[in-house]
Specification:
The chain is built from 23 helices and 18 strands. Helices cover 42% and strands 31% of the residues.
Length: 706
């Protein structure tokens, strides 16, 4: 979000410098306001400009300057009048309103109290409104004490609400100009206080009155809409605000974020590229026509360049986004905002180790940079450095009103809750090599983390199948311990497998992550979960040893080579090799094509076995598919996947034959707490020379709860 995101970014100026700059801005402000109207509404314009002691001339000159919004010059004339006639009511009154207009509302109130008879009820309400607005301006100044960061803003809100109550007591109409102004300013104050739901409520109230709403109010409501996950409303409001006033840069960037959040990625790309092209690389400024031009870099150009790069990441083109951000960081190595975005893209690509030095380097220079702190905490969780992540997250508690911080807290809660994994598979086939009708269910429940890196779990598996020789059923119940850190995932389980006989065994698994790309997996299981159900029905089970090497180039390309050895109790020994790969290509914001392939080989020592057991076989399968993002709002996403998998299968003593599958799948993601995947597969395969056609259905989900 434009304005909201910018509020999260640290400014290099210290708080003391910002305080005095804002004070100077308030003193020299010449923006038009309702109080400015009050200051001149008793005057007649006069073009005379004379510093004589004639009171009439001085007052006319003051009014002329006020009508032209030259407030400082007008104030000088009124001061001159009061030097000559200290009790001149016109000068006293209008000086108060000009002081209020210039941002010195509290001084104006004090001056008005010296002569209260000169000011009406509406005048006092106006002066108090200006004073509340000054509190609102002070509230924008970052404070070292974060616990007091909203003290001035809260004071402004309280004053504005009190003024509305006073207008109600005075029975002023809904269309009274001061009531409108107070309600407009209250919306801005509530936005600054991050009370976004109240912003929308007040906006709905002023809409009922068919009021003309200023651009700055529309922009504040747009900020609130974006924060409350209503990007379509934010988009429309930003556009309305920019139609009234096309200058504010933060409104333009806000529109970009609204387009992105509303999934109008193509329009967002066009828009941000155009906005970027409009920004010059340098600004040329000079105080007057006689001085030489001063040339300085345009910080807005850096921001639009960064947003244009991130737009590519939002469109799933991480490679181009990375290239653009790396080039920007080379040109501006002191920019921690660019460094943070580049590290974020690395993490989105799965390169958490590569992102870590960038986060650390940025925080070493700007330890209070909020976006870097949030991104680094996410990265620490991904690296399973939970103790460090906890310390980092605890330091962000005072920023809980930021949306990005709330997402981080949700990530941390999900990682520290219970986890339940469920896999369900049903198979209906015209043949019986692997069962004419079979069903399996596999459930694992993990505890909350113990001392950060350990989890205990319980495991239950149930299988059933119909075979020519009869039905077969097997159960497996187990419990174990899991250990996770940046490099290792280790698991040990003791289980009991029940079929025609009961067998107690164990399973050991280790996964070592060499870097962001390579990982090695080894597993020992006895009795093995890979034992065919038909073998278990014949009182035969296997012990298995598995090894696997995985290479993940990036989010689009991966390869895997695995080997499996099964030692059956009937004397058979099976060796399996599987080589697979997947490549995404033709990427678009809401869809992508992917291609893949598998090469499978197996060899069995024993010829005759009461389960499908070819002496040798080879299977080649190719994949062509499409993944479509059909819905995304807030943290909810819905993907559809369809793929066709033609292949060839050869079994020793049989001819090679054509095989194939057709898959259709839905995937739902509800934040980090719940993921649901279900689908159906039609297949045509050959076993011992006999073709079998059938359907496989699957339903898997992963649930995390506190």
């Amino acid at each position: 979000m434009g304005w909201i995101k910018q509020r999260c970014v640290n400014n290099r100026m210290n708080w003391f410098s910002r305080y005095w700059m804002l004070l100077l801005f308030g003193l020299l402000a010449v923006s038009y306001s309702a109080s400015g109207v009050s200051a001149v509404r008793f005057c007649e314009p006069n073009q005379t400009r004379d510093f004589s002691d004639d009171i009439t001339t001085l007052l006319a000159s003051a009014c002329n300057e006020a009508n032209n919004k030259h407030w400082v010059a007008a104030l000088h004339y009124y001061q001159e009048v009061l030097r000559i006639v200290p009790n001149n009511q016109t000068a006293v009154r209008n000086r108060v309103f000009i002081l209020s207009t210039l941002g010195m509302a509290r001084m104006a109130e004090w001056q008005a109290r010296q002569t209260p008879e000169l000011f009406s009820t509406d005048d006092w309400l106006e002066l108090k409104t200006n004073s509340a607005i000054i509190s609102l301006r002070w509230g924008k100044i970052p404070l070292q004490d974060q616990n007091r960061r909203f003290s001035e803003t809260d004071m402004a809100i309280q004053r504005l609400e009190t003024l509305l109550e006073q207008l109600d007591l005075a029975q002023q109409s809904r269309d009274h100009w001061l009531r409108k102004r107070i309600r407009f300013d209250l919306i801005v104050a509530l936005r600054d206080r991050w009370r976004m739901q109240e912003v929308l409520q007040h906006y709905q109230n002023i809409q009922v009155g068919n009021q003309d709403i200023p651009a700055y109010v529309l922009a504040a409501v747009a900020d609130a809409s974006l924060y409350l996950h209503k990007p379509w409303q934010a988009r429309n409001l930003y556009r309305q605000a920019l139609q009234q006033n096309a200058q504010p840069f933060e409104w333009k960037t806000g529109l970009f974020y609204a387009l992105v959040d509303n999934e109008e990625i193509d329009q967002a790309l066009i828009y941000i590229d155009q906005l970027n092209s409009e920004q010059p690389k340098q600004w040329r400024t000079r105080t007057d026509g006689t001085r030489p031009w001063k040339i300085k870099a345009n910080p807005r150009k850096t921001e639009t360049e960064t947003l244009a790069a991130m737009a590519r990441a939002y469109a799933n083109n991480y490679s181009e986004a990375q290239h653009k951000l790396q080039r920007l960081l080379d040109l501006a190595p002191a920019s921690q905002d660019i460094r943070n975005e580049l590290a974020t893209v690395y993490s989105w690509r799965g390169w958490f180790r590569k992102a870590e030095p960038l986060f650390k380097a940025g925080l070493a220079v700007e330890p209070k940079h909020l976006q870097l702190r949030i991104g680094h905490a996410h990265n620490l969780i991904a690296l399973k450095r939970y103790h460090e992540a906890e310390q980092s997250i605890a330091s962000l508690d005072k920023f809980s009103f930021y949306q990005e911080t709330q997402k981080l807290f949700e990530h941390w809660r999900a990682e520290n809750g219970y986890e339940f994994r469920q896999q369900t598979l049903t198979r209906n086939s015209s043949g019986a090599a692997k069962g004419s009708l079979s069903f399996s269910s596999d459930s694992v429940l993990f505890s909350k983390p113990l001392t950060y890196n350990y989890r205990v779990f319980v495991h239950y598996r149930w299988e059933h199948g119909d075979f020519p020789e009869g039905k077969a059923t097997a159960r497996r119940e187990g419990a174990g311990l899991e250990y996770r850190n940046s490099d290792w995932l280790l698991s040990a389980e003791v289980h009991q497998t029940q079929f025609d006989i009961n067998k107690i065994g164990f399973k050991l698994m280790g996964n070592y992550q060499l870097d962001d790309h390579w990982s090695v997996v080894a597993e020992l299981d006895t009795p093995s979960v890979h034992t065919p159900l038909r073998a278990l029905g014949s009182r035969v089970y296997a012990r298995s040893v598995n090894a696997e090497i995985n290479y993940q180039a990036d989010e689009n390309r991966q390869f895997s080579l695995s080997g499996h050895y099964l030692d059956f109790t009937d004397g058979n020994q099976r060796y399996e090799l599987l080589l697979s790969g997947l490549q995404h290509w033709l990427l678009a914001p809401h869809w992508r094509l992917f291609v893949g392939g598998e090469l499978f080989y197996s060899h069995n020592r024993k010829l005759d076995a009461p389960y499908f057991n070819p002496r040798q076989d080879v299977a080649i399968e190719t994949t062509l598919g499409m993944a479509i993002l059909s819905y995304r709002q807030d943290n909810t996403q819905f993907f559809q996947r369809i793929s066709v998998n033609p292949g060839m299968y050869w079994q020793k003593t049989f001819n090679a034959t054509v095989t194939g599958t057709l898959n259709y799948e839905h995937q739902w993601q509800f934040g980090r707490r719940f993921e649901l995947v279900y689908g159906i597969t039609g297949f045509s395969q050959v076993f011992d020379g006999d073709r079998e056609n059938g359907i496989i259905g699957h339903l898997n989900f992963n649930l995390r709860v506190l």
